[in-house]
Each structure stands twice: as C-alpha cells, then as structure tokens.
Amino acid sequence: LGDPHNTENPILRLMGVLLSDTIGVHEKKKIMEEEFHIAMTMELESEVSELCNLSEGVYKRGLSNGLEQGLEQGLERGIEQGIEQGIEQGLGRGIQGAVELLRESGIDDSTIVKNIMKKYQLSLEDAQNYVYAANDERS
C-alpha cells in the first residue's frame, strides 16, 4: 500500500494506517478518530487490534520464511563447497602420493610431471607445482 503517511487518497490512507506494521495500535486509534472522525467503539477497537495482530503476524511469517529459505540456501552452498574442497584435497593428496611412489621407483621429475599431467588432466604448471612441492617437503 505504500507509506500510510504520504498519500492523498483518504481510503488508501485509512487502509495504510490500519495495515501498517510501523504504526502502533494507540496511534492508529488516534488517527482514526482525529483524521477520519471515526468513533472508537469497543468493537471497533477490538477489530483494529486484530488488524494490528494480523499485519504483525504476516510480517513475522514473511520474516520466518525468509530466514528459513536463507538458511537452507546457505547450508546447501556450504555443503557443496565442503564437498568440493574435500574432493580437491583428497585429489591433491593422491597426486602427492603418486609423485612420491614414482620417485621411490627411480623415475625422474620431468617424467613424473608428464605422467601426472596425463593421468590427472593437469596443466604443466599445476603438475610442476605438485612435483616441486613434494621436493620441498622432502628437504
């Protein structure tokens, strides 16, 4: 409905006031009496209070749904990232183990680089990083 304070149309103003989640019950009653000359009976006060509770309930439900969706999406993304990182770390350890085994078998570094490039579809730079990282760890 927009801002209940800034509207020319009296019907929209009244609806905006009644459904506003930023205007309290007491203020709503005051506006209805002073601006719209609506006498506040017990029944009408009760209905205004219900409308206040309704708008607050709708707001809380929307907030709750938004939080729930955000949490679900965050968890999904976190799980996906965790799986990806786990796979990458596991693959890295596997490649490092292969480099060590090939070295122990007497194979030179340049051949190891070629072999792991082919086996694991690595770029030359990535393969060299694995081989030379294994060199650094041995030192």
From TrEMBL:
It comes from the Bacteria. This is Transposase. It comes from Candidatus Scybalocola faecigallinarum.
